[in-house]
Amino acid sequence: MSVADLTTSPVTSTYTKTSSRLHSSQLSLSSNRLSVHFSRSPRPIPRAQNFKITCSVNQVPAPVAVQTEEAKNKSECFGVFCQTYDLKAEEETKSWKKLINVAVSGAAGMISNHLLFKLASGEVFGPNQPVALKLLGSERSFQALEGVAMELEDSLYPLLREVSIGINPYEVFEDAEWALLIGAKPRGPGMERAGLLDINGQIFAEQGKALNAVASRNVKVIVVGNPCNTNALICLKNAPNIPAKNFHALTRLDENRAKCQLALKAGVFYDKVSNMTIWGNHSTTQVPDFLNARINGSPVKEVIKDHKWLEEEFTEKVQKRGGVLIQKWGRSSAASTAVSIADAMKSLVTPTPEGDWFSTGVYTNGNPYGIAQDIVFSMPCRSKGDGDYELVKDITFDEYLRKRIAKSEAELLAEKRCVAHLTGEGVAFCDLPEDTMLPGEM
Ligand SMILES: NC(=O)C1=CN([C@@H]2O[C@H](COP(=O)(O)OP(=O)(O)OC[C@H]3O[C@@H](n4cnc5c(N)ncnc54)[C@H](OP(=O)(O)O)[C@@H]3O)[C@@H](O)[C@H]2O)C=CC1
Ligand SMILES: O=C([O-])CC(=O)C(=O)O
């Protein structure tokens, strides 16, 4: 039995609750206090029969059935996460922070299947940060989404206080403080890159609009769905009321891959590699920067003397790692991508270690490196741990690095022209370079 008490002041107030598990309801009214009692059905009521209770102290209408379409568009609490709780009532949870709302799209997909459990465990936000997960799926994935939510229920994570599922971004993104945008159509056989940009771009234009309308004004957005840099650009252009600085394209997986390859070549463990920048696009034009990276605190080029290997083999290995993995595994990186999303978030919520930095794809306006304005480009960043970041200033460039960065920049400018219809910048014109691909394409 759960009870919701409402104080009506001064004359009329409205309370609305929809739930697929509402079983019976009882309304009581005394002076200016209205109580709604409802109990749960052991089995969910079919979605079309959800109840909507709307009450005022002047008129107390009977529960009415909600239209099927409306019910479908609602983001609803799931199962055990519909229970009420009071963190202040328990000794162990009294000192916890305020609940944080994390929205995840493509929540029934492979990457999310790893990521959600990391978020719920406290690995990302710490042991005193309760978490609400708001999962976005679609008509096609709704049952799978329920399966994911059931697994979250069965994991009994103490920090996971709320889980809701839905298919309407305007519902799911409400009050989101983080939005992890993973859902995107994978490129199928014979599909042109421009076609992928258009189809996925439309998803991110829509989700940008939804974030703009209902998310927290300081929401941090990490775009994972490919092509992630240009999807992030589309998203931020459709969310003018959210600072463009808050949007990221995930290139942390590339950074992690680059660190691993350098460690392997140098014969050290990967925790000895630092200051690793990935410049540019999450594509085969990305530039893993061995000029500024360090191994055991020394410049990579002093530790690895084979500079030809760095320029050719190392660079290509990182650029094409995703494709090699798909050939072995039969599907694209999911676990390591989830790890890298968690890393990217941790880098924004914990202070960056002295002297080090991390890579993330961010909006280029005001960058000190001479990279074209108005694109989303991976660059070296530091954070104080407040969710924000600043670009690192002390970076060395040589001709090789400049030339490689220019190629990735040209690719992103071409991608931008190709989605002009989705960023509000006129008519699209697609002249994408033919020799560049997503990391997962071979
Ligand atoms: N930036 C990076 O480093 C990396 C990015 N990626 C990218 O992440 C994305 C998700 O990967 P992953 O979780 O493995 O993929 P999955 O195929 O497992 O899941 C993707 C989800 O995308 C959603 N989706 C949205 N629109 C469509 C559509 N039109 N057709 C089909 N599915 C759609 C589906 O969910 P629903 O039906 O609920 O919408 C699906 O569950 C991909 O774009 C991939 O390329 C992958 C690895 C690394
Ligand atoms: O291309 C893909 O879908 C996979 C990908 O981004 C990667 O492995 O880096």
From TrEMBL:
CDD domains: MDH_chloroplast-like
Position of the signal peptide: none
GO MF terms held by the record: L-malate dehydrogenase (NADP+) activity
Catalytic activity field: (S)-malate + NADP(+) = oxaloacetate + NADPH + H(+)
Domain Lactate/malate dehydrogenase C-terminal, chain residue ranges per copy: 251-421
Enzyme type, top EC level: oxidoreductase
Subcellular location: Plastid, Chloroplast
UniProt keywords, alphabetically: Chloroplast, Disulfide bond, NADP, Oxidoreductase, Plastid, Transit peptide
InterPro entries xref list: Lactate/malate_DH_C, Lactate/malate_DH_N, Lactate_DH/Glyco_Ohase_4_C, Malate_DH_AS, Malate_DH_NADP-dep_pln, Malate_DH_type2, NAD(P)-bd_dom_sf
Keyword Nucleus recorded: no
Assembly information from the UniProt record: Homodimer.
Family stated for the protein in its record: Belongs to the LDH/MDH superfamily. MDH type 2 family.
Protein name: Malate dehydrogenase [NADP], chloroplastic
Organism (species): Salix brachista
